[in-house]
Amino acid sequence: MSAARLRHPLAVLAAALLVLPFAMRAIGMTDGVATEIAIFGLVGLGFNLLLGYTGLVSFGHGAFFGLAAYAAALLQIDILPGHVLVPIVFGTLFAAALGLLIGFLALRRRGVYFSLLTLAFTAMIFSIVFRWTAFTGGENGLRGMTRVSLLGLVGIEDQRRFYYVTAGIVLLAAWALWRVVHSPLGRVLQAIRENERRARFLGYPVQRYKLIAFTLSAAVTGLGGCLFAFLKVFVSADLVHVAFSGEILAMSIVGGMGHFLGPPLGGAFFILFREILSEYTAAWQFWFGLLFMAFILFSPSGLIGLGSRLLAPLRRHREEEAAMAARVTPRPRQEVPAFLRGARRAEGALLECRQVTKRFGDFTAVDRVDLALADRRLHALIGPNGAGKTTLFNVVSGMYPSEGGQLLLAGQRLDGLPPERVVAHGLARSFQITNLFPALTVEENLRLGAQARDPRRFDAWRPYTSLATVREETRALVEFLGLEGLEGVPVSSLSYGGQRLLELGLALSARPCVLLLDEPLAGLAAAERERITALVRGLTEHMAVLLVEHDIDRVFAFADRITVMNEGRVVVDGPCAEVREHPKVHEVYLGRGRDVLFADAARAAPTRGGAAVLRVAGIDTYYGKSHILHEVSLEVRAGEVVGLLGRNGAGKSSTLKSVMGLVAPARGRIEFAGRELGGHTPEQIARHGIGLVPQGRRLFPNLTVAENLELGRLRRRAGDGIRWEAERIFEFFPRIRERLGSKAETLSGGEQQMVAIARALSGNLKLLLLDEPFEGLAPAVRETIFVSLDRLRREVPILIVEHDLDLVLALADRVYVLDRGRITHEGPAAPLRADREMRRQVLWV
Amino acid sequence: MEIAKHVGFGPAVALSPVAVALLGILFERFILRRFYSADPILSLLVTFGLALVAEQAIRMIWGAAPLPASMPQALKGSVVLGDFLFSRYRLLLLALVALVLTGIWLLLNKTPFGLIVRAGTRDPEMVRALGIALSPILTAVFALGVGLAGLAGVMSAPLAGVQPAMGTEILTAAFVIVVIGGLGSFWGVVYAGLLVGVVRGLTVLFYPPAAEASMYALMVLVLLVRPRGLMGEKFERFE
């Protein structure tokens, strides 16, 4: 036999089970203990299907164990005396039915809530069992069970005999579980554990899968319970106690939930621990509890995790191979795989949005949008921040229901369908922030996408490798994306470029006829952008592609049709060349170019700034692996307003966040009022005198205006910056006085903006950071805010990020322009304000 | 009980919650804090582990048998109000609960501490951007919760007895009430607690064996009809 065969978990388990009674005898334990170990091993395996593979923590499995035991016992005592096998089968089925019921109820919630619900259900079942003494015997238990023979063939009264029967059953169940884990269904469970939402967007109805896993897990646990009942020839309420559920959980985690044999190892460990330590102290559970906590704190992967860490030096070369592989640059092919070439050739629009609307409270994110996507066309959706592009994507792909309007794909209504059904109709999407299955390999990620369409995706028995079509499609996709050699690499180890490529690939694996790409080029270097652009162009020959992208140069180079959105509405929709020169589009991006009516037209000379208040020198900032800012340097001097301009995704907000300490720069220095800010926490930086008015205002919605202001001044009383008292604030923003007692969530956009600015002014302030203060505000309100900010310039230096060029150029003295994370222009605002041509040069394509 | 033996019931009511709260602070500071940014399920597991360990520790120190918990002489007996007979101790309990509820309400709504807590549940990042450090606040919140649990334990001792498993029993009841009332809602929990109490009381009157199960039945109903709880807020991290 090959070495790999020998290491197969089932072989190891079989060998262990064979040897166990002898090993137990050797250390002075009985065959009864050996049987208990086998049973707990089984329970661990069943529990781990839910915990390790699906990622669901249940505190309720004690109920299945105990109730199955009761069911078996009662059947034997009252109805079928002498039988053993039938009660066991009955008990197991009973546990499965119970699992289905409890699972259905508890899975209506997720995460922590779900786990606590399972706890509540177990407690409920325990209280019923405990009190219903007529039926269950309460804590005295039921007597009258017998264990004589199995089907009249094998005598099992003898401990040793019963052990081998149990071991046989355990091995059989383990084999069945092994098959489940390696079946298409089992692979989906792991996907759910890694990223439940993405699994839905690949087309999997995840609730159903979770329920199946829960039921199976309950059944296996129940089987263990029945065997235990016959081991002890006795059942009592103790079996159903919550504490026992906790012990099952503890066993599994101590053993190691990441490995098939982890929990059985944990079970064996638990029982041996109990047997050996209880000879020395009655408080062995105390020590086991401590051990459990120690494992969670230091080695969540359990004993098996410890073991593999010890063996790590032997495996190092394999890890190095994987790491090297992850540094290889994928090179996509030109030829689109056969399975992606749609046979469908639709005339007219393939995807249609008619008057699609989406509101969040009283904020209209998408306002009666009409969009028509033709087959085999590349259609781009562009627009400034807050235009509603991603929201539109979310509505189309099923993440949010639309409120009014219709969505049609090849004539079929899509509105109101959940994501998995939308995918089934042939619409797939990629995500702006990489949304993959991190612990799974590259190949597995793609395979899951292909498998979602296979009729055998609920199969729990057949090995997943037997799905030939899925295998072929995955292979074709791997080649197309240029990811050969990287198939076995876990996705979390891939480079950022590789991950973005895989993100695209995952959307393709659903074999869409309409592909939605959300900023596929975000954060990529130039060469990678080239490659992905070429890939997308190739794909357009076979399917309809709608993409959101901020790299406008590229969009104008390769799109067929462009829709421009602004503030939730469609501004322009037409062929590429037409949109590029359209005056309305220029207006949206570059402003009108004439002086904003309410600005002080007589302000000829910009304020010459004084000493530098803020100095940012060469910072590099990353979000995870995405390199957002490249050596950004800027300065804000006393008495001036500095504008930070640039298109979406350029890194403007990230710059403000880096200054505020909300995202720590990886390199570079930030100096403020003579102090180095490196390593300081945001709260410290705020107390030094930097006030942030973030994008979207971020008032505390559940608190009143007065309370929001109070929070602004609470910990910022000390310091030598400006600090506005309540009277001063009311004088500046009279509206605030009127709304003092109202909850922030009831305020209009303009009122919220005033409160947000006032909140920053309430405490020690030496530099004001404003992130898109005019976003979402009506023109009249913009005027009010503009005037206020203009007056503020005399009191405190301001660094403002704003994409409305007319407004920000009228306000600022100097500006910096950011493009793809780099400063590309720096200078006074006046020339840009006056000269529209210059604006075009500096800010447009 | 240990403290009561030395100083009498009254001071014990004040001191034991404080002692427990101190333990809570240690736990939060050194263990729980590590899991704030991790999967919430790990926080759950580690506190669960603590419950296991604590129960066993109690067994080790004080033994597994229930301890006699005597009510102080002054609080025994009953009081007649109109047509109703109330036990003195239970009246005291009611008064204490009302006091605690008022105290917490005042703390949450009228103090800066409460202000920070209410803001922090919605937008912890913004709270920090306003110069307010959240860590000490979180420790204090945890200690407060722990202290209240301790107070509940002390007060329920004369009624329900003192035994090692009393922690787990009340935990499930507490959780059921939170599910019914809704996560994140002060008044939701108050109403739910009252509702559960009333339903339980009525069930005891008409069909005693089902008394305990009645609150679970209520929970199942709420889950089916209004999963977020009667007055709960949306907390994406937990849903």
Give Rg of chain A in angstroms: 33 Å
Q: Based on helices, strands and strand pairing, what is the structural class of chain B? A: mainly alpha
Beta strand % of chain A: 15-25%
Helical residue percent band of chain A: 40-55%
Strand content of chain B: under 5%
Q: How many beta-strand elements of chain B?
A: 2
Residue stretches of chain B low in confidence (pLDDT < 50, at least 5 long) are none
Query: With helices defined by DSSP (H or I, 4 residues minimum), what is the helix count of chain B?
Result: 10
Number of strand elements of chain A: 22
Structural category of chain A is alpha/beta
Largest sheet descriptor of chain B: 2 strands, antiparallel
The average pLDDT score of chain B comes to 79
Largest interface: A-B, 63 and 55 residues
Structure report:
- The complex is a heterodimer of chains A (845) and B (239).
- The longest helix of chain A has 27 residues, at 206-232.
- Chain A contains 34 helices and 22 strands.
- With 845 residues, chain A is α/β, with parallel strands linked by helices.
- Chain A is 50% helix and 15% strand.
- Chain B is mostly helical and 239 residues long.
- Chain B has helices at residues 2-7, 9-30, 40-62, 88-110, 112-122, 124-129, 135-160, 166-181, 186-206, 211-225, and strands at residues 78-81, 84-87.
- In chain B, a hairpin with a 2-residue loop joins strand 1 and strand 2 (84-87).
- The longest helix of chain B has 26 residues, at 135-160.
- Chain B is globular.
- The mean pLDDT of chain B is 79.
- Classes of the chains: A alpha/beta (845), B mainly alpha (239).
- At the A-B interface, helix 6, helix 11, helix 13, helix 26 and helix 27 of A face helix 3, helix 5, helix 6, helix 8 and helix 10 of B.
Q: Can you describe this structure in just a few lines?
A:
Chain A has 845 residues and is α/β, with parallel strands linked by helices. Helices cover 50% and strands 15% of the residues of chain A.
